[in-house]
Amino acid sequence: MSDPQAMRNITYAQAIRTALREEMKRDERVVLWGEDIGVYGGVYGATTGLQREFGTERVRDTPISEMAIVGMGVGAALLGLRPVVEIMYEDFLAHAADGVVNQAAKWGYMSGGQYRVPLVVRSPGGGGSGYAAQHSQNLEAWFAHIPGLIVVATCMPRDARGLLKAAIRDDNPVVFLEHKGHYTYKGDVPRDEEVLPLGKADIKRPGRDVTIVAWSKALVAALSAADELASEGIDAEVIDPRTLLPLDMDTILASVGRTRHLVVVSESHAYCGVSAEISAQVCERAFGELKRPPKRVGSHFVPLPYSEPMESYVIPDAARVAEAVRGLLA
Amino acid sequence: MRSDRVEQLLAFYRGMLRIRLFEEKILDVMLPGRMFRGSSHLSIGQEAVAVGVVSALGPQDYLITSHRGHGHCLARGMDMEGAFAEIMGRSTGVCAGKGGSMHLSARDLGILGENPVVGSSAPMAAGAALALRMQGSHGVVACFFGEGAINTGAFHEAVNLAALWSLPVVFVCENNRYAISVPVDVASARAKAIHERALGYGIEGHRIDGMNVLDVYDISMAAIEKARREGRPSFLVFDTYRFVGHHTADSEHYRPKDEVLQEFRAHDPIHFVERSVADDCIVDMTELVRIRDEVRAEVDAAFARALGAPWPSPEDALGGAYVETSASFTCTGLPG
Known about the structure:
The complex is a heterodimer of chains A (330) and B (336). With 330 residues, chain A is an alpha/beta fold. Chain A folds into 2 domains: 7-190, Rossmann fold (3-Layer(aba) Sandwich); 202-329, 3-Layer(aba) Sandwich (Rossmann fold), CATH 3.40.50.920. In chain A, 37% of the residues lie in helices and 21% in strands. Chain A contains 12 helices and 14 strands. The radius of gyration of chain A is 20 Å and the shape is globular. The termini of chain A are far apart. Chain B is an alpha/beta fold and 336 residues long. Chain B has one domain: Thiamin diphosphate (ThDP)-binding fold, Pyr/PP domains (Rossmann fold, 3-Layer(aba) Sandwich). In chain B, strand 5 (178-179) and strand 6 (182-183) form a beta hairpin.
C-alpha cells in the first residue's frame, strides 16, 4: 500500500515532465510537439526523455514554425487528439496568437458547439535571467482577455503537475504559462496521482492583516515579503489564483472580507493586467470591506532591460512587495 | 445507354447549379432584402472546383475551407436550409446562428469549417491529417483557399510540415486572380507558375483549368488517392474566376466590367457543361432544363423554410464559449 501522504521533492521541470508522462501513459491521444522538445528535451529540460519513452510519433521535434505548431494543434484537437504543444518562449506566442486567439478559443463557439478543442499550449515566460526584452515577457493578460480560453500561470511544482494534468484532460483550450526562472525550483509533490481543479485558488499562507494575491514567480516574492512582514508583526495572507481565467474571485473576496486590505502582485505590468481585473472586482464587489484602496505591484512599464541592476530594479522583489504592504497598512 | 461519364457530368451539373442558385439567392434576394449581416463571400464562377474536388473525397475524408466556402459545404452535402438559416442568423442554422456566412461547419459531414483568417486553414488541415494518420484512419483532408493565401507564412509552414511528415493533405488553391482587389501578379512572384512552389517542398504541384469540372475531378481523384495511399500531399492550383465581387459590398472598381463579362461568356463552368453535352447531342436540352427547375425548386423551398425559422433568443449568446462538462473545470470564476 502506498502512503497517500508520501511526497517526492522534485523540481518544477520534473513536475511538468511527470504530468506529461503520466497523462501520456494514461491516454494515447496525448501527443507533444514543439521546437527542440524531442532529442534535446526542451530548452529548459521539461520534456527530457519523453521522446525516448514514447517515440517520435508522439513526441515530435518541429521546425521553427510557431503558427503551424499551434495551428496543427487546433486541427488535431478537432479530430480527437489531445495535443500539448510547446512554444519555446512566451514572447513567441505573438507568432502563434492566431492559432490560440482566433482558432482554438473560438472554433467550439462559432460551430454552435459541434466541435471542441482539447489543446494545451505550454510556454515559459518571465524575466530575471538576463534574456532582455524579447525572451522575458509575462503575457497572461493578453490571453485572459479572450473568452474560450483557460489561462493557467503557476510556478510551484505541485500545482504545475496537478494543473497540467487537469489542463490535458479538459476539453477546452488551455494556455499553460510557466516561468523559465523556476524550472530548477524544488517542492514537494505527492507520489500518488493528483489532479488539481482549474479555476481554484490556493491560500499559500494564511494571515489576518492583509491579502496578497500573487501568481507565477511573483508568488515567491510575495511569500518572502510575508515572512519579512511577520517579523514586524504584520500577518499577511498570500493567495495564488493559479488559474487566471477563470479566476477564483470567491476565495479572494472571502480573504479580503477577513483582512480588509488587498495588494496584488504580478511580474507582468500592472497597467491593463490581471491585477487590474482583480482590484476592480474587489472594488466593485467588496468596496465596503476595504479599509484602504487596493494596491498593485508589477514590473515597471518598460521593456525588460538586459543589465542586471536594471533588470532587478524593474521586476518587483520581496522588498518592493513588503514596502507596498507597509504603505497600505500605515 | 449513356455512359457513366455522362451520368457523372450531369451529377456535377446539378451540384454546380445548387451552389450557383444558392448564392444567387443571397445576391439577388437576401442582399437587397437585408436578410443577412456583415457580408457574404460568393463563389459564383468557381463552382467547378468545389464540385470536382469534393466529389473526389470519400466518406472518411475531411475538408476545411476559407471565407469563400459555401460551395464546398454544399457539395459535401450540407443541409441547404441549415446553411441559409445560418446566414440569416436563425437558431436552426448549422452553427445555431453563432457563425454566419464565414463560419459554416458540419461535423457529421467531415466539414471542419470555413476559416476566414486567410492562410490559417493550412496548418489546421495538416494537424487534422496528422490526427487521422495517428488514429489509423485512411482519411484525407482537402484544404481550400484562394491564391491570396499562398503568400502567408502559415501556408508555407503547413506545406513544409505536411511534406516533411507525409501527411495526407491536398492543398487546393482556387486562383480566381484577385485577393480582394490585388491581382495575383501584383502579389505573387512568378504568378503564372505558383504551382511550382510545390517543387521546393518536394511534393507534386499542378496547374489545372478550374472551369472544367471533369478535369478538376480527375486530378483531384489522383491527388486524394496519392495522399491516401502514400501519405503524399499535393498542391493543386485551379485557374478560375469569380464573376461577382470579393464580397457582397464590393464596388469592383479594380477590374474592368468587360473583363468579367468576357470571362463569364468564355469560361462559365456551368455553360461549359451545357455546351459539352448539348452540342454533341448527348443529352437533350430539356433534361438540363428539368435539372435546373428541380434545383431552383430545392433552393426556393430551403430558402422559404429558413426564412420561417425562429431567431435565437439574445441570451443564447452566452452559452457555448466553454465546454462545461469537463470534470476538472469550474465555471464559477468566468466573467459575466
